[in-house]
Amino acid sequence: MKKIIFISMMSLLLVLVTACGPKDVASSNTTNETSNKQKVAKEDAVLSLTDMAGRTVHFTKKPERIITLTNSDMGIVYALGRSVVGRQTMDASGVEPSAALKATEVGNTHDLNLEKIASLTPDVIVASSEQNLKDVPALESIGAQVVLTGANSIADIKKQEAILAQLLGKDATKLQQEIDTKVADIKQEQKGKAVRALLILGAPGSNYAALPNSLSGDILEKAGGVNVAKDFKGVENFPQYASLNIEKIVQADPEVIFLMIHGGDEKETEIAFQKEMKQNDAWNSTTAVKNNNIVVLPADLFGTNPGIRITKALDFMANELNQVQK
After folding, report:
1. Helices 215-222 & 154-168 angle (0-180, nearest 10)
2. Coil, helix or strand for 23?
3. CA 282 to CA 287: how far, in whole Å?
4. In this structure, are residues 307 and 73 in contact, taking their beta carbons and an 8 Å threshold?
């Protein structure tokens, strides 16, 4: 099988929930004031939507100045015919579309530059539901509304497109149909075929198996793969992934192993994986390792939510599965 080497970066986020103590008179007044403000905002709203964190967001005017903190959101905004004034900080070679290069960099989902964000006077900031929920009060304090998105499935990406279309006064039907068509085409092409596959996130010594309820796991199944870890139990704070159970993996005998590498040097990490698997009798007994069917997944398609590039991710996965069967 043709071997493709890329590197992927993925952040593992643990959401901390803070408990509130008993309310005193002052806090009750504050709560009432907040409720009154929300009520007024709702009554005056020209647009109301529910984001992917379940938050209802009201706008008293049509949002014009937009900041996006993820590449997937930015790509969807441009695909819907709008542009952004601020975007996540990243290497210029990874910015898509190229028209977004002129937008001001404002940091990343895990490292925001609030001063620079405020200087752009945004009407709305589109951020990550997993990584930026805690940042909502700070972002709203500069006078902007916050809409949170995220995706653990292809269906979630379609929902993300719908929410952003509603925000921008656009129609996401075409974008959603492109996804549906791609899934249907691959299903037809892969009909009757099934390749046993294992998706691993991590680095040697610290690995997780991607489950079907993860975005990469959903892509695998939609592309015609059989996830050998589908019955594994997700870890407590990271339910889309499970600890590796080598015994069960050997029994399932994956024909291909996909790697999503978290951190480290690309070549060095890939070599370390190969060495670990080749020297371990259990790993070495699997068809995937025996046939050197180990693929490191590209970061822009699998390391994070690919947004409108989901069709390319599906094509990539389907092509790799087809290679196994040749």
Report:
1. 110
2. coil
3. 11
4. yes
Alpha-carbon distance of 313 to 302, in angstroms, equals: 7
| Amino acid identity at 102 | K
Convert the pLDDT of each residue in 47-67 to its tens digit.
999 999 999 999 999 999 999
Burial grade of 37 (CB within 10 A; 0-12, 13-18, 19 or more): exposed
Instruction: Tell me the pTM.
Output: 0.85
Q: How far is CA 37 from the centre of its chain?
A: 33
- The CA-CA-CA angle for residues 68, 84, 69, to 5°, reads 10
SS (H, E, C) 100-138: HHHCEECEECCEECHHHHHHCCCCEEEEECCCCHHHHHH
User: Strand runs (DSSP E) across 204-272, as ranges?
Assistant: 206-210, 225-227, 234-235, 238-243, 256-261
Task: Report pLDDT digits (tens) over 151-163.
Answer: 999 999 999 999 9
Q: Would you state the pLDDT for residue 38? A: 45
Q: From CA 114, how far away is CA 261, in angstroms rounded?
A: 30
d(CA 150, CA 152): 7
Is the CB of residue 86 less than 8 Å from the CB of residue 104?
yes
pLDDT at 45: 85
Q: Could you tell me the two tokens for 299?
A: 């970061």
Task: Classify 278 as helix, strand or coil.
Answer: helix
Stretches in the chain below the pLDDT threshold 70: 1-41, 93, 203-205, 262-266
Q: What is the pLDDT of residue 304?
A: 87
Diameter of the chain measured on Cα atoms: 72
Query: Residue 189: CB partners within 8 Å, gap ≥ 6?
Result: 224, 318
Q: Are 65 and 87 in contact (CB under 8 A)?
A: no
What's the Rg (C-alpha) of the chain? 22
